[in-house]
Amino acid sequence: MTAEERQRAIVRAARLAGSVDVAALAADLGVARETVRRDLRVLEDHGLVRRTHGGAYPVESAGFETTLAFRTTMHVPEKRRIAAAAAELLGDAETVFIDEGFTPQLIAEALPRDRPLTVVTASLATAGALAEAENTTVLLLGGRVRAGTLATVDHWTTRMLAGFVIDLAYIGANGITREHGLTTPDPAVSEVKAQAMRASRRTVFTGVHTKFGAVSFCRFASVGDLEAIVTSTRLPLSEAHRYSLQGPQVIRV
Fold it and tell me: Tens digits of per-residue pLDDT, 172-202?
């Protein structure tokens, strides 16, 4: 097996399982651990994986994106803490945009039920979760439904968003960096997120620690466009401070 073939096999394994371990890869591929570490460095340089202590996980890209079902199995306690903290930023907002994805869905479920609230979303899962919520009006954006994320996109979706003035948007991304801002693999998804932010007075980004430092295909916002970033304490304090220097409040929970 050549180095290129080995690296392709590593990427396939990471995308299938969600992460890979150096020791396990070395055993499976019949090579030294240092060879695997060298392969992971090459793959990280090409933006295909992010290395961790003892392994790596895949970076979402134009050619690869995890499904909503997969996201409901990863970092769940961390996502629940983030969602609860994000819901506390609601303030006096009466209209809210909830992005596609599992963490935004958890935010929607954490919003108060004891006051009138209008939720605008492209997510079928979020709309379903809130459909019977007391005092909550749900507006589901029309459009083409993406099978992997169960969310709507394309011009129907953005046209509806353009007609709203929304108090607060809860936005997710596949990656966030200080240099490239917020990114996502699909141009159609990128445009929905960008339009939601244009329609909203305030924007809060939520994401687990693995989102930070990752770069995907389509850029839809800069860090300075955000009012707040809500993540976990697994993002180092020093790194959180660097993001805060660009404008947003960074909350670690």
Answer: 999 999 999 999 999 999 999 999 999 999 9
pLDDT given for residue 73 in this prediction: 65
d(CA 96, CA 92): 11
Which residue, 224, 139, 149, 225, is CA-closest to 188? 149
The pLDDT assigned to 25 comes to 95
Q: What is the pLDDT of residue 62?
A: 59
> How far is residue 98 CA from its own chain's centroid?
12
Instruction: Decide the pairing of beta strands 200-206 and 228-231.
Output: parallel
Contact predicate 179/159, CB 8 Å? no
User: What percent of the chain stands above pLDDT 70?
Assistant: 96
Q: Cα–chain-centroid distance for residue 14?
A: 18
- Tell me which residues of the chain have a pLDDT lower than 70: 61-64, 67, 69, 73
> CB-based contacts of 120: which residues, under 8 Å, 6+ apart?
95, 96, 97, 98, 139, 141, 161, 164, 166, 196
The pLDDT assigned to 50 comes to 86
Give, in order, the Cα–Cα distances in Å from 32 to each of 3, 70, 115, 125.
Answer: 13, 31, 60, 44
